[in-house]
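Q: Hi! First time doing this. I have a protein sequence and I read that you can turn it into a structure. Is that right? Here it is:
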Amino acid sequence: MVLLSTGDISLGQFVLLSQMVYFLPTSIGSLLNTVWEYQDCSVSIQRFKTFMEDSQLNEGDVKIYSIDSITFENVEVILNSHTISPEINLSVEKGDFVLIKGENGAGKSSLIRILSKLLPLECGNIHINHIDLNKVEKRSLRERLSVATQTSYIFQNSLEENVFLSDGNNNIYMKMKQILSIDDKLTQKNVRVLSGGERQKINLMRAFVRDKEIMILDEPFSGLD
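A: Yes, that's right. Below is the predicted 3D structure, encoded as structure tokens:
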């Protein structure tokens, strides 16, 4: 008011300055929210790009058009030169349901990453349809896998956009909404405030709607009531 009374600024300039001061906290808050949202999704985006935009997706000599069998022979999970799992010998045929149990840190999640060719197989052999995993083309393999990981990577989008990241079966989507008791309240909820269980529901739906030949669920009921 001192500047106005002394004539250093006009009434219009004073009103404009007052509005700027009034809206400044809101603008700063919006900027901070944008930074927080970017931090929330940057890791998810990077992991998604690693899986979907691998520059070596065509790596491998043999394309596969179905998965009839998966065989693990003397497979050990090795991370940072340390063996973290016992030898795994397992044969899985189409239509089988297999449960792999183990303590935390026993290499279960790493085994999934090896099968998806996200980690190298350093010990033992894995065969897809009797073909060495190292010879199987990454793209054709991943197009036949649907994986629900332990960590739910949720983007700042709607429920449907989070579920249908690439392709998906809408009939399965509607059925999964019923099975997991997902109502309009959840579909309209801000993803920033989703609980761990709600995030896991989205994670499971994402895997199921892809409707692939091989479904891999890594601790699928974690966080669910």
